[in-house]
Amino acid sequence: MNVEIAESWKAQLQNEFEKPYFEQLAAFVKQEYTAHTCYPPGKQVFAAFDYCSFDEVKVVIIGQDPYHGPNQANGLCFSVNDGIAHPPSLINIFKEQENDVGKAYPKSGNLEPWAKQGVLLLNATLTVRAHQAGSHQKKGWETFTDAVIKTISNNKQGVVFLLWGGYAKQKTRLIDTNKHYVLTSGHPSPLSANRGYWFGNNHFSKCNTILLDSKKEPIIW
Question: Which residues have a catalytic role annotated?
Fold first, then answer.
C-alpha cells in the first residue's frame, strides 16, 4: 500500500508510517486488495485527509467501518458516491439535519461538501473486504486512526468532535476535553435511532453555535 496522504497530514503523522505496526498493516492491505475486492478504491483510502487538510479541521465525525457494498464507500465516513442509494444510517443523519437546521433532504449522499469545509469524516478502519463487514478490523487501522485523533487533540484547539454511538464515544479518552468540544449521542443506525437515541440531538446546530462562539465559520450542512 502506497501511503499517498495529503502533505499537511504527512507532516503530522510521519512517525506513524515508520512504525512496525503500520508496515504490517500496509502489507496486509496490499495483499487483501490483490487477492479480493476491497473498498474503498485504493486511491480513496485516505480521502478523508485529502478533502480536509490538517490546518482546516474544525469538526471530526468518527465512523467505524467503510461500507462494504459495490460503489458505496468513498473514503469518508457515512458518505456514499453520487447516485448511490443512501444507507439507513445516512438517511437518519439527513433526517436529523433536516429537522435541526431546516435544510431539505439532499439528493446525493456524498459528504465531500462537508469535508471541504473542515469536517474530518474519519472511519476507525479505513478499508474492508467486499460484503464482509469488519473484515479489516484489528489489523492496525485503529492504532493509526487513534493516533490521528490524538494528533488533532494535541496540536489543535477548539475542535468539535461529534461522537455517535458507543464505539465513537470510546474515543473520548483520546481527546483533551479542556481544549476541545465533545458532543455525544446514540448512533444514527435504525436500531439506535428508532429507540430514541439519535433524533433530536441537534448536533448540527450545536456544532455551529460552538464554531460561531469561537469566531469560526459555521458548517453549511
Answer: 65
Q: What angle do CA 90, 67, 119 make, to 5 degrees?
A: 55
pLDDT tens digit string along 130-153?
Answer: 999 999 999 999 999 999 999 999
pLDDT of residue 31: 98
pLDDT less than 70: residues of the chain:
1-2
* Grid cell locating 72: 458505496
Where does residue 81 fall: left (phi above 0), alpha (psi -120 to 50 degrees), or beta otherwise?
beta
What residues are paired with 132 via a beta bridge? Answer: 129
What are the grid coordinates assigned to 124, written together? 476507525
* SS3 category, 120: strand
Which residues, including other chains, have CB under 8 Å from residue 102's CB and lie 6 or more apart?
none
CA separation (Å) from 89 to 35, 53, 215? 30, 26, 31
Buried b (16+ CB within 10 A) or exposed e, 6-45: beebeebbeebeeeeebeebeebbeebbeeeebbbeeebb
